[in-house]
Amino acid sequence: MGNLVNQAQIDASQISFSARFNEVFAAVEDPVRQLAMELPSTAATEQYNWLGVVPGLTEWLDDRKLSTLKAEGFTIVNRDWSNGIRVHRNDIRDDRLGLVRPRIDDLARKAALHYGQLLGDYLVDAFAGALALGYDGKALCVTDHPNGSLADISNKATAALADASYDAGRAAMQGFIDENGDNLGIVPTHLVVGPSNERTALQTTQAGVISDGSGAGITNVFAGTARVIVSPKLVGAYANYWFLCDLSQAFKPLILQIREPVTFSAMDDPNSLPRFMRKELLYGAEGAHAVGPGLWQCIYGSDGTT
Asked: What is the rounded radius of gyration, in angstroms, for the C-alpha atoms of the chain?
């Protein structure tokens, strides 16, 4: 009977697996998450109302200028997420944890990258709005965002990523105005691209010298103006998509709504059905969260078709 797995071994393994999961999960760095403002959620669905533009300071001669609650709004519905692995009881009994821990690491890593994958889905959908429309009833990047009584604003282009199109995108964002005609103070800080556009993005934003088109080199005045974020979602039909984002603002282009943070879970009780029927112990991750559109003024996108 000495070679049979006992509950003390199971409990010790669960503690070890949980600690390892949390360590790996916390260590994963996913730059794509920078695109979202993370908001807590306490209900199955959250309603967001656009509060209107906060006015700039003006001389106080009579009543102060106040922003008002707008009729526009949208909802984000939370969804439950999970993944898991099966571990044979004998791997615990025979102390073969060296085979199990890499699977726990992978479990944690994939769980940690899930937020960024959902955010990447919204980049893919930025020009279509099939996943969700923003507070103004438009997709994230379109040519006709309404702006009160003023002319519509475009934050969408079609040019492929290059020095000239990057220049045009920066100029467009820095020219965004609110419904009162005041400049919004938007300055792009990040350039988001797919893997195949990474070289071009780095050359555009970091190279000290660039070509002038004739083979001669000229100083790159945009060196250091943006950090590059690579989204693994921007591949295939979406490989030429690129986005400029101002991530210095209080609001972000996207919202990551978290009702239940991702946590480690286990089913390894002696009376559990998997253990009783198949000598299996189950470990996994679970959480409840969702992604939605944020402030379109903080993003400028191109589908790279021209």
From this structure: 25
Beta bridge partners of 76: 46
pLDDT tens figures, 130-187? 998 998 999 999 999 999 889 999 999 999 999 999 999 999 999 999 888 889 999 9
Structural domain includes residue 72 = no
Query: Residue 287 and residue 298: Cα distance in Å, rounded?
Result: 28
Domain containing 204 — which CATH number?
3.90.1690
Distance between CA atoms of residues 254 and 140, nearest Å: 9
Q: 151: Cβ–Cβ under 8 A, 6 or more apart, which residues?
A: none
The answer to whether residue 243 is domain-embedded is yes
Residues 148, 224: Cα–Cα separation, whole Å: 35
CA distances from residue 26 to 19, 104, 107, 258 in whole angstroms, order as listed: 11, 13, 13, 16
Please check whether residue 152 is in contact with residue 143, taking contact to mean a CB–CB distance below 8 angstroms. Answer: yes
Give every CB contact of residue 167 below 8 A, 6+ residues apart in sequence.
Answer: 222
How much is the pTM?
0.85
φ, ψ dihedrals at 89, nearest 5°? -55, -35
Cα–Cα distance measured from residue 196 to residue 230, given in angstroms and rounded to the nearest whole number: 9
d(CA 11, CA 18): 11
